[in-house]
Write a structure and sequence with these properties.
- The structure holds three protein chains of three kinds.
- Chain A has one domain.
- Chain A is mainly α.
- Chain A has a two-stranded antiparallel ribbon with strand order 1-2.
- In chain A, helix 2 runs parallel beside helix 6, helix 2 crosses helix 12 and helix 11 packs parallel to helix 14.
- Chain B is an all-alpha fold.
- Chain B has one domain.
- In chain B, strands 1-2 form a two-stranded antiparallel ribbon.
- By secondary structure, chain C is an alpha/beta fold.
- Chain C has a domain of 133 residues: Rossmann fold (3-Layer(aba) Sandwich).
- In chain C, 36% of the residues lie in helices and 24% in strands.
- In chain C, helix 3 crosses helix 4.
- The longest helix of chain C has 16 residues.
- The relative contact order of chain C is 0.17.
- The chains are: A mainly alpha, B mainly alpha, C alpha/beta.
- The interface between A and B is large, with 48 and 49 residues.
Chain lengths: 321, 286, 246
């Protein structure tokens, strides 16, 4: 296990304390909502990073797992009154299974081909849910208003519990990513990212490890989906299964620094507030200015700083030892 | 019943040849530079809007706006390649994937900003109306667009096979290093291919504008379908893109007919997945 | 009792369309031998490597290692069994350090990082790269990259090491280093099969030489026998050249 330096641990704890205090200081719902989005997209970006930044499978279809998580737990809650925490686990498992099912035939796909396959997958899932009467098709589903409690995973009077739960989820995903990155799996993922030939020649079962990466990623993303459903209390294909969400996840990871543990979180911390604020200030008129800025930003980052924010720091830190 | 079937076949062919033209542009870029242009559909949208504004403001029929679309999109492709795409070619794979997404989002929302998200239509192009052949309805603008697409595709084919530049493009597609060794300026070929691919999809946009709704987000679906067509035909293969376009057009309409119209695009995506799983080189690719 | 053959290649044929890249190739390798495979470009040497190591599946024929039929096995499975190889174009992991590359190889036999790191450092010391363990792969020379690739292969603790043109593009000094390394590897008990073009190296290190031409094995023998063989000379230089007896 890579040893964390004292500096890293103490700054981590410092940030954590700040984050815990944040909603107590900023008590208005909007800043809390923005932070919840930061945590939620941060988690999905961390999840993406495990299969994308580390294992080289650049998925533009993560939203499918987000939607599967959201729909599974919500459906189970609405139809069978199954506790959403249990629904969370079931949603994650189903997402992981679906991920394996689609991931297996795609085992030899890399780069652009894999990316397009993931888009195709995401769109097929969206189309399917859009026409599936069982889950409300295009109209979606509304969650029942249950009594406010942690057990019910539902809170009406304040965003605070949602804030802390999502923060906890984010921390869980970071721990998972850390374990993966500093273990044998992490080395193997990076070998696979380099080339399948390198991986094979070192005795790595490429298909198996790719599936593991996809499944972990899918499970975590689905968890975020369940959270979303419990937070917003309504879901339909247009809100939980659309391609722009997948693209957003990739962008956040790249902006912060794909292939590093904290990179995606940094990316979310930058991008979500920026996009929310510009959306509120400029976007509500439907003029698209916020998205123009967004598109320009993505283009510039791809060209001038593709290693993201983390890449800036690691260039400073990494010298020949 | 059979009449409806024939109608769907006709519709499938009509849209299929347009897909072919769009895909030819994309496969050119992909084959030469190994980069997927996720903004390809948005170039189509720009072609459509160019045609629309020329019609609305100056009364120019879409068919006559083709030269303008060609030049405009060619230049745009050239600029985008030179100032943006060429710079990520040496960068990490992720950057190459994401950059054209960025361009796509930028262009689509620029269109929203400039022209509002409203749906537009060219009400009465020069060649309009419907022909009735028995019980089959053949939309004249669709038919003209289809013929036009075939003609343009043929021109592209001849250009690539007969002209020096065209052959250089094909050579670069087949083996970049060998082309370099033969003295071909592959960087220049990149620019030309990107520009040419963009111009072709702009022309397709002009054709589509004669009967299809024109709106900023229209590029999205067409772009995605184009990837499927290119994959089916074989990355880099012009002939493949041509044939695959027809197949995908038919699959879409017949799939919608036999299964469910709501699934028509899902069927196209399924074709992509099955192609890359079973025969990654596509029908005619290498 | 007959000793279990180390590596046996029987009638291996690999076709690409109408082209027979490997046509009915037979040979065996005894343990602790160094066997070189030579032949003009396009003779099918790398194809043969790919067939043996599981990167290609032969169309017909049989390959067995340590008595087990490995024909058609997955490449990573063959590696686990103890066959390691390098590639003509160096295959290493570019955004890792030298040490991390070696660790990735060593991890085949360990589940924890720490013992793998120890093994990796041991291998890097053996190959002479230990001083550069912290350097990024992008910061080392091509000769070192080749050495690293060999190190990674050695880290998987193979019994058979197959090197594909590991001497290509090296200077005289680097060549000497690689030849000495190969000898050290054999001294450690590892069997070597080597594809090579650099004839001085072949002459020096080989116990036996196998010659391929146009997909077929045309000769097998000691280095001295092979180098004066008429067919071999013609394969490299063409019909016009006659054997010149020394």
């Amino acid at each position: 296990m890579r040893n964390l330096t004292f500096k890293q641990i103490s700054s981590g704890i410092g940030v954590l304390i700040l984050l815990i205090l944040f909603p107590l200081v900023f008590q208005k719902p909007f800043p809390q909502h923005v932070m919840i989005l930061v945590f939620m997209f941060g988690m999905m970006a961390v999840a993406w990073n495990i299969m994308g930044g580390y294992a080289g499978m650049f998925s533009f279809g993560q939203v499918a797992f987000f939607g599967i998580g959201a729909y599974t737990s919500s459906f189970l809650l609405i139809t069978y009154h199954i506790n959403p925490w249990l629904g969370l686990v079931v949603g994650g498992l189903i997402a992981a299974l679906v991920a394996a099912a689609i991931g297996y035939p795609c085992s030899n796909l890399r780069g652009h081909y894999f990316a397009i396959a993931s888009i195709a997958f995401g769109e097929i899932v969206r189309t399917h849910f859009n026409n599936w009467k069982l889950v409300g098709a295009a109209e979606g589903m509304t969650l029942p208003m249950l009594e406010e409690s942690f057990r019910n995973f539902m809170f009406h009077s304040s965003k605070l519990p949602y804030y802390y739960i999502m923060l906890a989820f984010l921390i869980i995903s970071l721990v998972v990513c850390y374990i993966v990155a500093t273990s044998k799996m992490g080395y193997y993922f990076r070998a696979i990212k380099e080339s399948h030939d390198v991986a094979k020649v070192l005795g790595i079962n490429v298909v198996w490890y790719r599936l593991i990466a996809i499944m972990i990623s899918a499970f975590l993303t689905a968890m975020a989906g369940t959270f979303y459903a419990q937070y917003v209390l309504y879901l339909d294909p247009e809100s939980v299964l659309i391609l722009p969400i997948s693209i957003q996840i990739v962008l956040i990871s790249m902006l912060g620094g794909a292939g590093s543990i904290m990179g995606p979180v940094i990316g979310a911390a930058i991008l979500m507030p920026v996009s929310e604020i510009t959306r509120v200030m400029l976007g509500h008129k439907g003029t698209g200015i916020d998205m123009i800025i967004y598109g320009a930003l993505i283009t510039l980052i791809s060209v001038y700083q593709p290693k993201g924010v983390w890449g800036l720091f690691s260039n400073i830190g990494k010298r020949a030892k | 019943m059979t009449d409806q079937l024939v109608q769907q076949i006709v519709n499938g062919l009509l849209i299929g040849f347009i897909y072919s033209l769009i895909a030819i542009g994309l496969t050119l870029i992909w084959g030469v530079m190994n980069i997927v242009n996720f903004a390809h559909g948005d170039f189509l949208m720009l072609g459509m809007f160019t045609s629309f504004w020329l019609y609305t403001l100056y009364g120019v029929d879409p068919l006559f706006s083709i030269p303008v679309c060609t030049v405009l999109l060619f230049i745009l492709g050239l600029l985008i390649y030179r100032f943006i795409v060429s710079k990520v070619m040496k960068g990490p794979m992720l950057a190459q994937l994401v950059v054209t997404f960025g361009i796509s989002i930028f262009l689509a929302n620029l269109a929203v900003f400039l022209w509002t998200p409203d749906f537009r239509l060219i009400e009465k192009p020069l060649l309009h109306g419907t022909w009735d052949i028995g019980d089959i309805k053949l939309s004249v603008p669709k038919f003209v667009s289809t013929i036009g697409s075939v003609i343009v595709s043929l021109f592209v084919f001849l250009f690539l096979k007969r002209t020096k530049t065209g052959k250089a493009i094909l050579a670069t597609e087949m083996d970049r290093e060998a082309a370099l060794l033969m003295g071909i300026n592959t960087e220049r070929i990149n620019s030309i291919s990107f520009a040419l691919g963009s111009a072709l999809v702009g022309i397709a946009g002009a054709f589509l504008s004669t009967y299809y709704y024109i709106y900023p987000q229209v590029g999205g679906t067409f772009g995605l379908i184009a990837f499927c067509v290119v994959a089916l035909g074989g990355f880099g293969s012009i002939e493949g893109a041509f044939i695959a376009g027809i197949i995908v057009g038919l699959a879409q309409t017949l799939g919608g007919f036999f299964i469910d119209p709501a699934y028509k695009y899902a069927i196209v995506f399924l074709i992509y997945l099955i192609t890359v799983w079973i025969r990654p080189q596509g029908l005619l690719g290498w | 009792m007959k000793k279990t053959p180390f590596l046996e290649v029987n009638g291996v044929t690999k076709r690409f369309g109408g082209l027979f890249a490997n046509d009915n190739i037979d040979f065996t390798v005894e343990e602790r031998e160094i066997v070189s495979i030579i032949g003009p470009n396009g003779a099918g040497k790398s194809t043969l490597f790919n067939c043996v190591t599981g990167f290609y599946h032969p169309n017909s024929g049989k390959i067995s290692f340590l008595g087990e039929d490995i024909t058609g096995y997955r490449a990573d499975k063959i590696c686990k069994m103890g066959v390691a190889r390098t590639f003509q174009i160096v295959q290493i992991i570019s955004d890792m350090t030298v040490l991390e590359n070696a660790v990735t190889g060593a991890l085949l036999r360990f589940n924890k990082i720490q013992p793998a790191v120890e093994k990796a450092e041991e291998v890097l010391t053996f190959t002479g790269l230990i001083e550069k363990k912290g350097l990024l792969v992008t910061q080392i020379t091509i000769a070192d990259k080749k050495k690293l690739e060999v190190s990674m292969a050695l880290a998987t603790q193979p019994r058979l090491l197959m090197l594909d043109e590991s001497m290509a593009g090296l200077t005289r000094v680097e060549l000497r280093g690689m030849i000495d390394l190969i000898k050290k590897v054999r001294d450690k008990g590892i069997t070597l099969v080597v594809v090579e073009h650099v004839m001085e190296a072949v002459m020096e290190i080989s116990d036996r030489v196998i010659v391929l031409n146009s997909g077929r094995k045309i000769m097998e023998g000691s280095p001295q026998e092979v180098v004066v063989n008429r067919e071999v000379i013609q394969a490299y230089l063409g019909e016009k050249y006659n054997v010149v007896s020394s």
